[in-house]
Amino acid sequence: MSTTHPSPFTVTIDIVDERIARLTFSHPTRRNALSAELLQALDTRLVELAARRIPVVILGSGVGQDVWSAGHDLGELAHDRDPIAYGKPLEQALRRVRAYPGVVIAMVSGSAWGGAVDLAMSCDLVVADETARFAMTPANIGLPYTTSGLLRFFNNVPIHVLKEMFFTAQPLDAARAERFGVVNRLVGSDRLEATALDMARGIAGKAPLAIQAVKEQLRILEDLQPLPVQAMEQIAELRRQACESADFSEGLAAFSERRAAVFGGT
């Protein structure tokens, strides 16, 4: 089954067999950016696949591209100063991936930026080729990341690597990503699709209810990060200040004008 949209992006479902589906997103004019509409379509397709009880989904944007996804569509920030807050399309899609009643495998070829890294890390497994790069770039524009998003990284990469990614906004290359456990399998581009399918077939042959139960238990355990009310209020205030800051406006303007941002800390 294939579903397309008249707009420049597509989100397609290809049923490999009764147990495996490929979910492919594409937004070529925006370097596969995760626009609100694309994210909502992705969310809808995952609901459809869950209703069909497909136990394994391979999520990706194709093989051989320079950019797997440029992350959240920054053009939308002119209308939304906090696009990663709870209830926004990106967070909704990430929760849908994490709660999917089966295994979601990210197949990554090319660089992933910002929210696209979060999308890959929200999947259960990551298969990548040597061109994969993972860059967390919110600091480039002054966008404060969410606590829930940081926890996904906190649970998956060493703390000093997490800080390096968020403080420097420099890409983590494929070899380091594999070393730190961000990537499960690192292969050549010519073997990426076959490797993802082999992994999917191996999982699809196991007991789906048992895997679903383990996945849900692990999701709940990962989310067991109780924070005092005072701490949550402090975090919320820090994020509010950053979202309303002159630095954020400068970051967006610099991105739009293709120049280096000049931040003043206000």
From TrEMBL:
Protein's UniProt keywords contain Hydrolase: no
Family: Belongs to the enoyl-CoA hydratase/isomerase family.
Pfam families: ECH_1
One function term, GO molecular function aspect: lyase activity
Keywords in alphabetical order: Lyase
Upper classification of the organism: Bacteria, Pseudomonadati, Pseudomonadota, Betaproteobacteria, Burkholderiales
Xref: NCBIfam families: PRK11423.1
Protein name: Enoyl-CoA hydratase/carnithine racemase
Domain of life: Bacteria
The keyword Manganese is assigned to this record: no
GO term, biological process aspect, one: fatty acid beta-oxidation
